[in-house]
Write a structure and sequence with these properties.
Blueprint: H1 2-18, H2 20-30, E1 38-43, E2 49-53, H3 66-78, E3 87-89, H4 92-95, E4 109-111, H5 112-120, H6 125-136, H7 139-152, H8 175-186, H9 192-195, E5 199-202, E6 210-213, H10 218-221, E7 225-233, E8 237-246, E9 249-258, H11 261-278, E10 279-285, E11 292-295, E12 299-300, E13 303-308, E14 312-317, E15 326-331, E16 344-352, E17 355-364, E18 369-370, H12 373-385
Antiparallel strand pairs: 1-2, 1-9, 3-4, 5-6, 7-8, 8-9, 10-14, 11-13, 12-18, 13-17, 15-16, 16-17
Helix pairs in contact: 3-6, 3-8, 5-6, 6-7
Organism: Halobacillus seohaensis
Keywords: Carboxypeptidase, Cell shape, Cell wall biogenesis/degradation, Coiled coil, Hydrolase, Peptidoglycan synthesis, Protease, Signal
Pfam family, one: PBP5_C
C-alpha cells in the first residue's frame, strides 16, 4: 500500500512538472472574459487573434449588424457614388423603423454625413434603412450587397436579413466574423471620425433638434477607444464590438450574449487590457516601402511598384525575442487597364512556419494607363533588336 501511494505521488509530481505553465496560462486566459458566452480579441494592424472563446458560435448580432452597413457606406463614399453633402430623402418605410432611431420623418431630407452620424453614434435603425435605400434602391437589394460582401470577406458563419440588426431567425454572425468585418471597416480611417463621437446634435437649432449620445459608453471611459458598435435585443442580449488604439497597436474586442451591459463592458475592458498589457507591435515594412514590381506589357508605365496599403505589423509577447518570419507576395490573376493609384493588386503575407501571422493588401503606388500604339511598337522593336533606347 505504501509503495502504491508513493507511486501515485511520483506520478502527480511528474504531471505537475510537465503541465504547470500550461494550466496557469489557461486559468489566466479563462479569467479574461469569464461571463461572456462568446468573445474574441484581434489586433487590427496585424490581423492576429490574441484570444478567443466560442468565437465561431453563430449568434444574433443585434445592432452590431450596422458594422457591415457602415462598411458598405464607406466603400460607396470611396468610390464617389455618394458624397457626405448629398441630401437623402427619407421614405415611409425608413421612417417606420422601430427600436433605436433618430426619429426621421417621411419626406424629410438629411445629408449622408448626418445619417452616418445617426448610425454610428445613436445606432439609428431608420438611418440605416434610409442609407440602404439610397445606395441600393431598396432595403432588399442592400441586404444582397451585405451578403455578397460576407462572401468576399470569406466569412462562413454570417448571414444578414436587414441592415440594422432587428430580430430575424435567419440573421446571425459570430464574434470572429464580426471582428473581421470591424477590421475591414477600420481600414477606412475616416470612420472613426464618427464612431468616436460621444455626443452631437442633428437638425441643430431647429424645432426637432435631436441629441445624439453614443450607445457605447466606453468611448468616454476607456483611453484610446474609437468605436465601434453596440447591440442589444432580448434574444441577442448585450453585445459590443469595440476598438481602441495605443501606440502601434489597434485592438478589436468582440463580446456577444452578455447578460448585463456591465458584464459586457467589463469583458471588453479585460480583453483590451490583456492585449495592450501582454503584446507589442513590430513594424516589418512601411506602407511606403516597395515590396514588389508588377510588369504589364501594355501599360504605361510598364513596371508598376506595389506598396502595402498600411504598415505591415506583427505582434510579439513583451520581453520575448522576435521570431523569424517569412514574407510571400501573391498577385491578382488578372488586372484590367487603366489602374488607379491605390488599387488593390495582390497580397503580402507574413508567416511563422505554417502559421499565417499577417496578411496585408498590396496596392498600386501610381496610376497606369494603356500604352499608345507608338510606345507598344517601340517596345516590340527593343525586344527584337536588344536596343535599350530607340
Amino acid at each position: 500500500m505504501r509503495r502504491f501511494v508513493s507511486m501515485l505521488l511520483a506520478i502527480s509530481v511528474i504531471t505537475m512538472l510537465f503541465h504547470p505553465a500550461h494550466t496557469q496560462a489557461e486559468d489566466k486566459k479563462d479569467s479574461i472574459a469569464p461571463t461572456a458566452p462568446s468573445a474574441i480579441l484581434m489586433e487590427k494592424n496585424s490581423g492576429m487573434t490574441l484570444y478567443d472563446k466560442e468565437a465561431d458560435k453563430e449568434l444574433p448580432p443585434a445592432s452590431m449588424t450596422k458594422i457591415m452597413t457602415l462598411l458598405l457606406i464607406m466603400e460607396e463614399l470611396e468610390k464617389e457614388n455618394i458624397s457626405l453633402e448629398e441630401k437623402v430623402r427619407i421614405s415611409e418605410h425608413a421612417a417606420s423603423m422601430g427600436g433605436s432611431q433618430i426619429f426621421l420623418e417621411a419626406g424629410e431630407e438629411m445629408t449622408v454625413e448626418d445619417l452616418l452620424k445617426g448610425i454610428a453614434v445613436a445606432s439609428g435603425n431608420d438611418a440605416s434603412v434610409a442609407m440602404a435605400e439610397r445606395i441600393a434602391g431598396s432595403e432588399d437589394e442592400f441586404v444582397k450587397m451585405m451578403n455578397d460582401k460576407v462572401k468576399d470577406l470569406g466569412l462562413k458563419h454570417t448571414h444578414f436579413e436587414n441592415p440594422n440588426g432587428l430580430p430575424h431567425d435567419n440573421h446571425y454572425s459570430t464574434a470572429r466574423d464580426m471582428a473581421v468585418m470591424a477590421r475591414e471597416l477600420l481600414m477606412h480611417e475616416a470612420i472613426t471620425d464618427y464612431t468616436s463621437i460621444y455626443d452631437d446634435y442633428l437638425r441643430k437649432g431647429e424645432k426637432n433638434e435631436f441629441w445624439l449620445v453614443n450607445t457605447n459608453k466606453l468611448i468616454k471611459n476607456y483611453p484610446g477607444m474609437d468605436g465601434l458598435k453596440t447591440g442589444f435585443t432580448n434574444k441577442a442580449k448585450y453585445c459590443l464590438t469595440a476598438s481602441a488604439k495605443k501606440g502601434d497597436l489597434h485592438m478589436i474586442a468582440v463580446v456577444m450574449g452578455a447578460e448585463k451591459p456591465k458584464e459586457r463592458n467589463e469583458a471588453v475592458t479585460n480583453l483590451l487590457d490583456f492585449g495592450f498589457g501582454q503584446y507589442e507591435g513590430v513594424k516589418l515594412y512601411s506602407k511606403d516601402e516597395i515590396l514588389h514590381s508588377m510588369e504589364n506589357s501594355r501599360g504605361m508605365p510598364k513596371d508598376l511598384p506595389l506598396v502595402p496599403e498600411k504598415d505591415v505589423m506583427i505582434l510579439k509577447k513583451k520581453n520575448e525575442e522576435k521570431a523569424k518570419y517569412k514574407t510571400s507576395v501573391t498577385l491578382n490573376e488578372s488586372v484590367d487597364l487603366p489602374i488607379k493609384k491605390g488599387e488593390h493588386l495582390g497580397w503580402v503575407t507574413i508567416s511563422n512556419g505554417k502559421e499565417e501571422i499577417s496578411k496585408v493588401r498590396l496596392e498600386a503606388s501610381e496610376p497606369v494607363n494603356k500604352a499608345n500604339l507608338l510606345e507598344l511598337w517601340q517596345r516590340s522593336f527593343r525586344n527584337l533588336t536588344g536596343f535599350e533606347k530607340f
